[in-house]
Each structure stands twice: as structure tokens, then as C-alpha cells.
Design goal:
Distance between the termini: 35 Å
Number of strands: 16
CATH superfamily of the largest domain: Type I PLP-dependent aspartate aminotransferase-like (Major domain)
CATH class of the largest domain: Alpha Beta
CATH topology of the largest domain: Aspartate Aminotransferase, domain 2
Strand content: 15-25%
Strand order of the largest sheet: 4-10-9-8-7-5-6
Number of helices: 15
Radius of gyration: 22 Å
Largest sheet: 7 strands, mixed
CATH architecture of the largest domain: 3-Layer(aba) Sandwich
Amino acid sequence: MNTANVNFLKENNARHMFHPMAHPADSLANPPKIITGGAGVRIRDIDGNEMIDAVGGLWNVNLGYSCQPVKDAIARQLDALPYYSTFRGTSNDAVIALSYEMAEFFRQDGLVRAFFTSGGSDSVETALRLARQYHKIRGEHGRVKFISLKKGYHGTHMGGASVNGNANFRTAYEPLLPGCYHIPAPYTYRNPFNETDPAKLAMLCAAALEDEIAFQGAGTIAAFIMEPILGAGGVIPPHKSFLPKVREICDRNGILLITDEVITAYGRTGAWSGSRLWGVKPDMMCTAKAITNGYFPFGAVMLSQDVTDVFENDKTGAAAIGHGYTYSGHPVGAAAAIACLAETKRLDVATNAAARGTQLFDGIEKLMKKHELIGDVRGGHGLMAAIELVSDRRTKAPVAKELPMALQEAVYKNGVMVRVSGPNMIFSPPLIITEDEVNQVLAAVDAGFASF
């Protein structure tokens, strides 16, 4: 890249756009990193600095930045058919083939039909809408409410923001969708029960769900939605008993269970889905992100046989789906997803995620013994891990607001990109990362903490 172009990009950085999840003034005062290249698990910035991307793009570049089969599939599809709609009356060959592959991939999760979207927030919005419609088809028009977990993250559409469990994604946009309620998350480090035993906390949170259902009235609730492992909220894995108990509660009360697997599907947890990790079959599953390795905006909601039957056997017209996106089932995205699924299975990335995730988690646990700023470490299920920063371990007092970003910068200078969200430093590297590369990530984090 020539000097003139470098200067142009730096001069115009953040000046003509708003960045997601950032204050516009902060983006101007502290210009974002300009990433200009990527290969394998490494990225390169505009100044030529190369680093391991321990963020995996945004939880989505599972196969790294050099996945040629996906790139080739995109190119071939652009030559053959760059776009056509899947609205009533038309389809395309790529999306038909993908729907078959998706049904095969998620068959063990009990999921048999796909509704294609443009990304994760779209997938959540779709699931919430279809959940309400499902109950209306069955004649239960009063089932319109949703319950979710505090600390959970479900995207940024009005429905997703409404079931989000973090005020940062809600307050500026309220009032949101009515009828959305939240229960405590099974978060052992901080919870209203002051319970540190994961199994006991899981039962307390399940009891809170039952209490909320009783208070609202089971006949008014459409669905419970949760991430099998909470991601953006700080990588919070529940005890293994929690999701099976939630499944039983939902079944007993006629409530649909929606698993938001925008992050956890396609091997991230060390299993092929987060639901499978916990041995649960959801009624709907939201997916996106790694479905195309981040190379094309795409997503899907997978539906169980029971939900499918209610829609397909309707004789009243109530099942007509008045919902969709211009880019639902986009042929280029579908071609990318077919290639991505094939590579995901061929490389068996779930197995590598399990092994490297254990290595990463064990490594950050060791760092906790060295650095007092680390109050808690979470992970241990695939390549999802987090460090929670505190100023005082005894009181769990949070760190100064500026410190997480300063730490992120220190790690960056040591050759690794990490992400901070609130007091959490989050790790979600590509699932093809090697043992040596995980050690490099740990060394960079260690060096970054050592500078404070």
C-alpha cells in the first residue's frame, strides 16, 4: 500500500461513519485499528504489524483468513448467479442444496427445517416472530411473552434488544418490546444468591425460571431463549444440569425453547452445537457467524420436527409466513455456507477446539496466580474463554473504566488481538489455531498484564 493511500485512510478513519458498539467521539479521539490483511489465524494492520487474532473476527472466523474452498465457492457462485430471491414462488439451486446440508448437520439436535437470514440479529428476530406465530397457529393467542437470562446477548434488533440481559444494549433504545422478562444467569462469580457452587446455582436459577413462569402465567409465555454458553456477557458456562432442567420446565409448561447459537454452533464449544454439548434438543436454534466463516453475511434459524409440523399441517392460513429478508437464502451466502460446512467437518474443528480450549483455559488460570488484576477466569468448553478484571479480588471491585482498553492495547503491542467487553477480556480465536499459537497468545497476555 503506497504512502498516499495509507495517509488517506488514517486521515479519514472514523470521520465518515459510526462504529458499532462505540461512542462516536471516542472513535474520533482514539481511531480504530485499521486491519488490511489476514492469513491463517493472523491479521495485519495498516502499519504492517502482524498479530494472532484471538478474537476470530467477532467469534465467526472459525476457519481462519485463508480458507480457499469458501473463497472459491463464492467466486463460482458470483459467476453463475450473484443473486435471486427466495420469496414465495422462487428459489435458487445453492439454497436448496444448503437446506439439505443444514438438516443433515443438525439432525442430532432434532432440527429439520431452515429459515435463512442475513445474520445473527436477524436469526433471533426470526425465531421470536416464529415462536409467537407457532402458538397462534395452535390457537394459543395469549402466548406472546419471552423470558431470557440476565447477562445474555441476543443481537441488536428491537426484539433481540428486548430479550438482551445487559443494560448497555437496552437503555438508550427503550421503550423496547413489551412482555420480555429476565431471570438471573448461572454466573458463579456474581449472582444475587451469593452461591458459588455451580450445581446449586443452576437449580436456583431454574427455580427462578419456574417462579417467573408461575407469576406471568404459563399460558402467556411463548418462549425461553438463551445462549448455551453466554458469550458477549463474559463467557459464562452454566452447570451441565441447567439447560436440561430448562428443557424439562419448558416442556411441562408448553413453552418453546430457543437456543441462541450464533456463537456456539459449528464447533466453537468443542461440540458441533452448544445444545449438543449439554445433551438438549431445542425447538429452534439461531445460527449465523461461522456459518460462512465470516466471509459473507448469512444466518439461519433451524426448526424442530414438532414446530415444522405445526406450520406445514396448518389448514387455516395462519401459518403463512409474513416475514423475511431481501437476502434470505442469498445464493452466494448459501454457496459459501455449503463450502464452509464441508471444511468444518473435514478439519474436525470441534475436536481441535476442545483440545486448544482446554490449553487456553488452563493457561489463563495459571496467569491468574501471577496477576492480581485477574478476578475470575471462565471457559473450559471449547475455544471460549474470558478473564474478568477487578481492582480488588477480595471485594470483587471493578477496575477503572479505562483499564480494559489499556490492557487490550498492551496485549496488541505484544502481537495478539484480544477483545474487551466491560471488565472482561474475551478470547474466541479461530478453531484452527495450533498449540504453539495458543502459547503465543498466553505469552502476549502475560506480557500485557506484566506492564501494569
